[in-house]
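C-alpha cells please, single chain.
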Amino acid sequence: MAAIFRWWIGGVADRHGAERFVAPFVIITVLGVTAIAWAIHDQSVPVLLLSALLLGSAYGALQNLTLLISFASVTRRHLGLASSIWNVGFDLGSAIGSVVVGAIAVAADFPTALAATGVFALLTLPLFLGKYHLHIVGAAMILSIAAVALQLLLGFTGLLSLGQAAFLGVGAYTSGLLATGLKLPFELTIVAAGLLSGLSSLILV
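Here you go.
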C-alpha cells in the first residue's frame, strides 16, 4: 500500500502541488495509528487490517510529499544536497521515533505507544496548515479541554455542573488580556491563565 500511494501521490502532487496534501495524510496517519491501538486493545483483526491500510497509504504518500517539498525549496543545482538532507532526516527520524515509541511501549504498553505516535503526528500539523485551518484546529483543541473536564466531572463522579465553563472563560480572558495588553509571551500567559483559573475555583470552594 505504501508503494502504491508513493507512486500515485507523486503524479497528483506534480499537477496540484505537494503542500496541500500533507495535512490530510498526517490526519490519516493519526487515524491509522489510533485505530491500530484500538484494534490491538480489542483484538479486532478486521479493524487492524483496515487501519494498517490507512497507515501504509499515509506513510507512502508523506514520504514522497516531503521529498517533493524539499526539492521545491532549492534550485536545480542543489537537488542532490536536498535529497541527501532529506534522506538523513528521514533515517534519523525513523531511528529516534523507533527508540521513543519502543521506550513508551516498554514503560506502558503498545497501544499507549501508538497513541503517543498519533499525538506526535498531530504536533506537526501547524507546519502545513494555513492561518484559517490552524485557527479551527486550535479552537477544537481548546473546546476539547472543556469536554474532558465535563467528562471527568459528570462521567466519573456523576456530578452535574457547568461551572467549569466559567473557569475556562477566566483562563481564556486572562491569557488574551495579558497577551494583547501587556504583550507577554504566549507561554507566560498560559501559565498565568491556569494559575488564576485555579485560584478562582479555590476561592469559590
